[in-house]
Specification:
Residues 234-443 form the Histidine kinase domain. There is one protein chain. This protein is α+β, with helices and mostly antiparallel strands. It has 9 helices and 12 strands. It folds into 3 domains: 7-161, Beta-Lactamase, CATH 3.30.450; 189-292, Helix Hairpins (Orthogonal Bundle), CATH 1.10.287; 294-444, Histidine kinase-like ATPase, C-terminal domain (Heat Shock Protein 90). Helix content is 52%, strand content 15%. The strands form 3 sheets. A 5-stranded antiparallel beta sheet has the order 2-1-5-4-3. α1 (7-63) packs antiparallel against α2, α5 runs parallel beside α9 and α7 (337-354) runs antiparallel to α9. The longest helix is centred in the first third of the chain and has 57 residues, at 7-63. It binds adenosine-5'-diphosphate (ADP) and magnesium ion. Adenosine-5'-diphosphate is lined by residues 350-351, 354-355, 375, 377, 380, 388, 394-396, 401-407, 433.
Amino acid sequence: MKSSSSLQKRLGLGLTLGMTLLWLGATVGAWLVVQHELNEAFDSALEETAQRILPLAVLEISNREEPREAQHVATLKMHNEYLTYLVRDASGKILMQSHDANPKIFSKRPTEGFSTSQKYRLYGASALRQTLFIEIAEPLGHRREAAREALFALLLPLFLLIPVSLLGTWLFVRFSLRSVLAYRRAIEARGVGDLSPIKVARLPAEIDPVAEAVNHLLERLRNALEAERSFTANSAHELRTPLASTLAQIQRLHHEAPEGPLRVRAQKIENALRELSRLSEKLMQLAKAEGGGLLSETPQDLIPLLAHGVDEWNQHSGQRIVLQLPSQASVYSTIDPDAFGILLRNLIENALKYGATDQPVQVSLTEQAQLRVVNSGPVVPESVLEHLTERFVRGHSEISGSGLGLAIAKTIVQGVNARMKLLSPATGRQDGFEVCVWLPLAPS
Ligand SMILES: Nc1ncnc2c1ncn2[C@@H]1O[C@H](COP(=O)(O)OP(=O)(O)O)[C@@H](O)[C@H]1O
Ligand SMILES: [Mg+2]
């Protein structure tokens, strides 16, 4: 399966990239306009300066005694000129120049209007019917610097906007998706058997139909399971009476039959019927374990329940069970007492049935509501052990059984959100079998 990518990440990157591209586009557009306007302003200044100087130059040249002599205009104070100019006649002879002017940057013959050389922007104007020309040069570097600075000023906010947009989108999406996260948590927090509808307030419109569909599905699933469960429970229940009456008939037949093959056969049928009624009993227990309601509203003290259960078994089994209780007076758990009874019955039944008959069965409960049932006997290999809790899976073929006992125990344990572990050999021993259940402690 392709690993799913985060919506937060995708939106954050996508929106930031989109914003950056748009910003760059806008910057280029704005920069082109600014550049055009700057050129116009600079050109107009150049032209204005030429028009201003020209009449003064004409006046001065015509007042000279030797008008055709070139002359540097003296400065009041030494400085680097930003604008330099030449005044020439039509043949290109220099009549006047600003003190910094370099004649090489001007063309050989004076021209009018604007022109651009590699490094300078030039403007020429004439006076006295094109006999006197003034040309002004402005280094292009200056304009380029202005354009560069404008571009930089436009780009600068982008460096701030990118992280702000990434963080902003991330936070905003996280904020908008918080109900979806709550929905996920609600699903995750559910117990195994909980098929009730999932309720989360105000999901986004895109997710709401999904949640609704999930609830429909849960409902259909719940109905299907309910039907299956009630069928199992009902059939097991319906079988009880006919089984009991047939058993009674067979027992009578057994007693009345003369010594011989007929009596043996009646005995066999009786055994088979007992087996059948045990199976129907197990099916009822399984239906109850799957039916939910395994947690009780009020916390139950496990100690009297356990003591009573063990006592009952001991009366039938010749005191084979050794019970070990915590020093604490009571251990409260949220498990339903009936469910606890079924769980205990199945574990003790197994321990008595499969454990070495000359050895005691140890049942213990800790203050942390950890129940252990330990018996001696041969070690069960790991490969067999891991499948024993499945339905109708059995290890011993000589001893009769249904293969449902551990499956019932596991269903109950899962239904109360507890944990169960099978161990063989038992802890601290070379042999035997141990079942360990961590029951849910009631919050004190
Ligand atoms: N206390 C135990 N000691 C040894 N083996 C056990 C014990 N409990 C269960 N088993 C093994 O697990 C199998 C499954 O047990 P269970 O689900 O109760 O079914 P059943 O008892 O009807 O066979 C048993 O057949 C047996 O091989
Ligand atoms: Mg069993």
